[in-house]
Amino acid sequence: MKNRLYKRALGTVLACAMSLSLMSAVQAEDKTVTIGVTSFADTLEPTEQYFSWVVSRYAVGECLAKFDEEGNIAPCLAESWEGSEDGLTWTFKIREGVKFSNGNDMTPEAVKSSLERTCEKSDRVPEFFDLDNMEVDGQNLIFHLKRANANMAGSLADPLFLIVDTSVDDSTFAMEGPICTGPYAVESFSPTDSCVVVRNEHYWDGEVPLDKVTLKCVDDQTTRSMALQTGEIDIAYNLKTENLIEFEGNDNYNIQELQSLRSTYAFMNQNGALGDIKLRQALLRGLDKETYCNALLEGGATPGKAPVPPTLDFGFDELNDENTYDPEGAKALLEEGGYKDTDGDGFVETPDGEPLELNFVIYTSRAELGVYAQAAQANLKDIGINVKLNTVSYETLLDMRDSGQYDLLIWNVLVANTGDPENYLRENWYSTSANNTAGYNNPEVDKLLDELAATFDTDARKELVMQIQQHIMDDAATVFFGYETTYLFSNTRVEGVKMYPMDYYWLTKDIKLAE
């Protein structure tokens, strides 16, 4: 993974420069920083959907384990851990001397209570592990599992399992933020505007350098870039390749780049029209993903074909994609499947003679998603498939996914959220997964995923992941659009800004005002 610095002179007017200077002086005195983020959550309740990511990204919540800058697992609220040979029993030694942000002690019993709360309230837990019970033995918390897990520490590093104080009224967590152990605590939260966090005076892991940080929601990419240029924000997440020219050569800004562990893809709902594999194959062959990534996104993404991107060593180049871009082949498949334009409107009807219109649901906070969707709509029109785009908020998209109200639904996730792709694959393509609302069901994939969970050998795990990916591709189950390059832009008044391969840590205790 590469990090490189881009700098470019930015021609700003004198008034803008003076505004930036004055703002910096005031903020430096108060030790405050503002970070521009995309809207992601309408609640800070960590067991709801994926909103625990926000609690982690905002440096409020921590887990028993974490990932370092290289993507390796490291201790956090647990000092160490050990698993049994069969992967069914895991012992975590809970760190002593840690307090929650309200001053309460974080004991092994408190950790157990927090994890029990997560298991009770979130239907995502079974995608990580199948818990039988937990017990406290001194400073140790022991997990007894019903299903082997070769990567329990990685599973518990997912923000879903961040540790909260359950001795308080947890009904306030949604709007006031959970009581956790991170370097900052929530002061205020407005889902559509900002989240303000302040220094946790009880933090266990060293000095917290800032008094207050505002995480400001700026969904529009252009507006977010301009806000960084004018000094309204100090750090900007999720800017893209086209923004580089706005900052290149300017010593007032640092830009970091990371070859992404993220994948943008679209579920194809097999409970509706896309239950026909010929239609799914034709759709895939109608998509010019090379042009999307190399031209429309200006090289800011690698064209997709498989569940796992080539940045991870899981056989990307060895996997066979039989549904590469082939519009004439796509038309032939439609003809073969009985899809014909019988009324001359340019779009095919179903074999039963009914109009075919696919509902493609996308969300608004990532600019590249709209690029992919609009380009796909145009490509598919060329082969006679009618696609209607339905642009909604991320929160609405989650509801539509859970209720199956889509034919295609765009998704953008970290593919190694537990350190490797196992959880990602199980969560999205295991037949009984709560998140598998597209109806994908391949018994061989289920079998291989179960085998993967109990396999410790690295080479054997790679082989199993490759087999699982090949099945998903052969089944034409999902549209894999691309794997985007990730950028982190910041001005030089702040130091310690780092990119992490695991996208869980945006604000950290290392971010401080420059000397």
Rg value:
24 Å
Helix content: 25-40%
Number of strands: 21
Average pLDDT works out at 92
What structural class do you assign from the helix and strand content? alpha+beta
Sheet having the most strands = 7 strands, mixed
Gap from first CA to last CA: 29 Å
SS summary, helix count: 14
Which parts are unreliable, with pLDDT below 50 for 5 consecutive residues or more? 1-28
Strands in their spatial order, largest beta sheet: 8-9-10-1-11-19-12
Shape: globular
Strand content: 15-25%
Descriptive notes:
- The protein has 515 residues and is α+β, with helices and mostly antiparallel strands.
- 28% of the residues lie in helices and 22% in strands.
- It has helices spanning 14-30, 52-57, 108-121, 152-156, 173-176, 221-230, 277-285, 289-296, 327-336, 367-382, 394-403, 422-429, 443-453, 458-474, and strands at 32-37, 65-67, 73-75, 78-83, 89-94, 131-137, 140-145, 184-190, 194-199, 212-217, 235-237, 253-258, 262-268, 301-303, 357-363, 386-392, 408-414, 478-484, 486-491, 494-495, 512-513.
- The longest helix is centred in the N-terminal third of the chain and has 17 residues, at 14-30.
